[in-house]
């Protein structure tokens, strides 16, 4: 039987930093609830990482260790998810041969005892993906700045042209990776790799509440569709919302053509299927116990 597992990271950062966020822990919590209620994820299979964990258990090294464990413990047929909401960064550097490169990275929690922020680079994430077993479905959702095209070799499915918001939007970048590890990999990015992602404030029941433009809108669309919407349809709807939002960003979908028409996270888990699984386990237990009694006699 296949297993669904997730590492969910939501960081608002320490108040001592100028770039304190407000929305992302709540957005990550909301995602966890949707995973459990609509997509069949068991609570014990969701690792939720956030600010305030003891011993800085939200640093880059800790998050990477959880991601590696998620990947290496999965077998063919399993569905795994890595979600990150927080700050992202993009740096340009020139290698020894004079070639210019762009390094994208995720800003994580503080290093234990040092108090300095830590990072996960795009190379470290790609190294993790190289450990992915054949037949494992891997979804990465990044709600941070400069998150588009973070995984090389994945085809951008929604072509974007022109200038919108604060950055030039990229057309399809890079060819499609033919390696087996990439065939079942999907990247949902909050924006293009040269754009920023936004959080806003909204008045709800007389109170001002923070909101992630990307995650909160994505989950609203998923739930409005009853949990059954393809990856392509989801991101098309999300782009429509973002195109008229005052904080403009262009979310991206990066995967194979076939996978773009798959249901988001495999589609909503029907209650009947869950009950059927419990029934099958119960029957298997009864049969095993009966066989054991016969052998004992």
TrEMBL record:
Give GO MF terms, alphabetically: cysteine-type endopeptidase activity
Pfam families (alphabetical): Peptidase_C14
User: The Peptidase C14 caspase domain covers which part of the protein?
Assistant: 4-255
Q: What is any one GO biological process for this UniProt entry?
A: proteolysis
Q: Name one GO cellular component term.
A: cytoplasm
The record's listing under PANTHER family reads: METACASPASE-1, METACASPASE-4
Q: Which family does it belong to?
A: Belongs to the peptidase C14B family.
Q: What name appears for this protein in its UniProt entry?
A: Uncharacterized protein LOC101514729
Please name the taxonomic classification of the source.
Answer: Eukaryota, Viridiplantae, Streptophyta, Embryophyta, Tracheophyta
Q: Which gene encodes it?
A: LOC101514729
